[in-house]
Amino acid sequence: MALALVSGDQPSEKDNWDNGRLARKQQLLTEIVLRNMMITLVVDGIMTHRVLVQGLLRSYGVQTLGVDNDRDAVDLIAFGVKFDLIIIEKILPVLNGLDASNKADS
Q1: How far, in whole angstroms, is CA 87 from its chain's centroid?
Q2: DSSP string across 1-58
Q3: Closest among 87, 43, 36, 27 to 62, alpha carbons compared
Q4: What is the DSSP letter of 64?
Q5: What are the residue boundaries of the structural domains of the chain, listed by start?
Q6: What stretch of H or E contains 67?
Q7: Using one digit for the tens of pLDDT, what is the confidence trace for 23-53?
Q8: For 10, how many CA atoms within 13 A lie in the half-sphere containing its CB?
Q9: Fold observed for domain 21-105
Q10: Torsion angle (degrees, nearest 10) of CA 24, 25, 28, 29
């Protein structure tokens, strides 16, 4: 059953404020992620933040893994787990984000 707009319910200019650019960007991001099967590591000491970021990424088809401290993230990388993107909170309980990035590079 298709819904049709009644003549008085036409979309206004406010409904199309970005001329469809945001929807197109979302579509392109989804296509890129699905084509490349992106894997992301989310490092955040606050579980709520971590879950929200992972949920947003998963809604675009990104596979995610979340840890609550930088030491665990560095250990994963040291064991050879490969990530396409790593999102690290700057201030964490064990190491800060910059220190963890430096350790992961070495």
Answers
A1: 8
A2: ------GGGPPPGGGGTTTTHHHHHHHHHHHHHHHHT-EEEEE-SSHHHHHHHHHHHH
A3: 36
A4: E
A5: 21-105
A6: strand 63-67
A7: 888 788 777 766 768 899 999 888 999 999 9
A8: 4
A9: Rossmann fold (3.40.50)
A10: -150
